[in-house]
Amino acid sequence: ALPHDLAGVRVVISAGGTREPLDPVRFLGNHSSGKQGFALARAAAQRGAIVTVVAGSTADPGDPAGVGIVRVSDAQHLAEEMTKRAAEADVVIMAAAVADFRPVAFAESKIKKSDTGPAPIELTTNPDILRGLVTDREAGRIPPETVIVGFAAETGDETGGVLDHGRAKLRRKGCDLLVVNAVGDGKAFGTEDNTGWLLSATGTETALPLGSKTLMSSRILDEVRALVPGSDDV
Ligand code: C5P
Known about the structure:
Helices cover 26% and strands 28% of the residues. The chain has helices at 35-46, 75-86, 129-138, 162-173, 213-227; strands at residues 10-15, 20-23, 26-28, 50-55, 67-71, 91-94, 101-103, 123-125, 147-155, 177-183, 193-200, 205-212. The protein has an eight-stranded mixed sheet with strand order 5-4-1-6-9-10-11-12, with helices on both faces. A two-stranded antiparallel sheet has the order 2-3. The longest helix is centred in the last third of the chain and has 15 residues, at 213-227. The chain is globular and about 65 Å long. It starts with 9 loop residues before the first strand and ends in a 7-residue tail after the last helix. The structure holds cytidine-5'-monophosphate. Cytidine-5'-monophosphate binds at residues 75, 94, 96, 98, 100, 126, 128-130, 150-152.
């Protein structure tokens, strides 16, 4: 039986991809399935946590029992929901694949083909939600004991810098834990299995052997639990 070691712990998880609107029928999106985020949600709920998933586009139907779901479309909506909900969470996990860029302009009517060929799409940078949550915590807008977890999808192999990129990203983002996923070659996105490392701000580095997203979730939650104040008592 699973331990009930997250009883009453409030966990907010972002999952899936964002869709950055271009016109009423088109968007810029990505292949995130939401499977890892939903697997974390299920695992946390089974361990007694009070879980909310803020989900963008997903392949996973994502209606696990006992998990609240909020649907969002683009990065700005995701940022709003996460920022608001983080203030009342014990743990925030950014498992969503957030688009780094969005079109500057939204065309109110469908963009037409033209004889002069396609018009360029001008992009602007989306807010870094994870970094923003850390900044909010530093500024006291969310409680200092809130545990913040990020994900990093990195291409390459062990020697090719996945781990180094992960270490640099952990420092840059300032979160407490970073789940580094090796991607590319059919790894991670949309698949059932995941592999990588779990890096903590205190310097611990745990290899996550290739396994199901459920197994990876339970490893991640073991480390999260150790960071939740008073978790030794539950
Ligand atoms: O910088 P990079 O996109 O690789 O970082 C990935 C992590 O940052 C993930 O946890 C992702 O959810 C989060 N992220 C974010 N806002 C962005 C881009 C990424 O919160 N605009």
